């Protein structure tokens, strides 16, 4: 699904990613953890194609296709979804209108007609029920006046509607209480299947109690320095990152 080879990236001439290698297969969930400033959010942004980051070396392939030169919207149309740590408020644009536009733009990019209104409405109802979202929520302006939990739930609703091939959740758990965390995780788990893949970026092992990863990777100083199973996340929770720093030095 995703193959990253020797990826180097910088912002304003400062090197952030210094040789990332990562392969994510369909059906897999990969968690990326690491101390602040290690490059986790930069990696998410570079995969999604944010233009303030410059790829200086290496490649990013989605289903065997090099996407490194594609604009963010082109990557989105090919199935890359990035959930933001701090979702943007868009006054005057309802959740429903936003999602209709996003879906139909992707269909247009694939040479398809707009989704018929009845089909769209049916899908919106199904996904809203799946994620336990109140229908009134869907007529509100996108993220305007939303609580932290509502913003994150809305992101997972967008994920459910868009059905991307690769979903990147960038610290989706930040600022969530345990109930909101469970609802978000439950939504992600219901959307997991053999044809998509998920990358979860998190500081906390608690999210991984609910979204159980196949692999956990530790990012440090722009490189993946250790990979393992979910047990690695427990070790990090218990011991912090110093022991890995010592291993890397050794």
From TrEMBL:
InterPro entries found in the cross-reference section: AAA+_ATPase, ABC_transporter-like_ATP-bd, FeS-cluster_ATPase_SufC, P-loop_NTPase
CDD domains registered for this protein in UniProt: ABC_FeS_Assembly (cd03217)
Gene3D superfamilies documented for this protein: P-loop containing nucleotide triphosphate hydrolases
UniProtKB keywords: ATP-binding, Nucleotide-binding
Transmembrane regions: none
Pfam family, one: ABC_tran
Similarity comment text for this entry: Belongs to the ABC transporter superfamily. Ycf16 family.
Protein name: Fe-S cluster assembly ATPase SufC
Aminoacyl-tRNA synthetase in keyword set: no
GO molecular function, one term: ATP binding
Superkingdom, taxonomy of origin: Bacteria
Alphabetical list of SMART domains matching this protein: AAA (SM00382)
The UniProt record lists the keyword ATP-binding: yes
Coiled coil segments of this chain: none
Ranges for domain ABC transporter: 2-246
NCBIfam families, sorted: sufC (TIGR01978)
């Amino acid at each position: 699904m995703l193959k990253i080879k020797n990826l180097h990236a910088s912002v304003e001439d400062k090197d952030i990613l210094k040789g990332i290698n990562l392969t994510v297969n369909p059906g897999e969930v990969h968690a990326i953890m690491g101390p602040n400033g290690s490059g986790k959010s930069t990696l998410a942004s570079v995969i999604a194609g944010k233009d303030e980051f410059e790829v200086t070396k290496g490649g990013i392939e989605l289903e065997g296709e090099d996407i490194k030169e594609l604009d963010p919207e082109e990557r989105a149309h090919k199935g890359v979804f990035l959930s933001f740590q701090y979702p943007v408020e868009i006054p005057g644009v309802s959740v429903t209108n936003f999602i209709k536009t996003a879906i139909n733009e992707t269909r247009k990019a694939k040479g398809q007609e707009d989704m018929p209104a009845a089909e769209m409405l049916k899908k919106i109802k199904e996904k809203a029920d799946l994620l336990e979202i109140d229908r009134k929520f869907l007529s509100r302006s996108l993220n305007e006046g939303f609580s932290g939990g509502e913003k994150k739930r809305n992101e997972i609703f967008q994920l459910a509607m868009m059905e991307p091939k690769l979903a990147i959740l960038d610290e989706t758990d930040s600022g969530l209480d345990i109930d909101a965390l469970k609802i978000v995780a439950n939504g992600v788990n219901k959307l997991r299947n053999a044809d998509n893949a998920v990358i979860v970026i998190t500081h906390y092992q608690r999210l991984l109690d609910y979204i159980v990863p196949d692999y956990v990777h530790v990012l440090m100083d722009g490189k993946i320095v250790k990979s393992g199973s979910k047990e690695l996340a427990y070790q990090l929770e218990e011991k912090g990152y110093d022991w890995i720093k010592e291993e890397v030095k050794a």
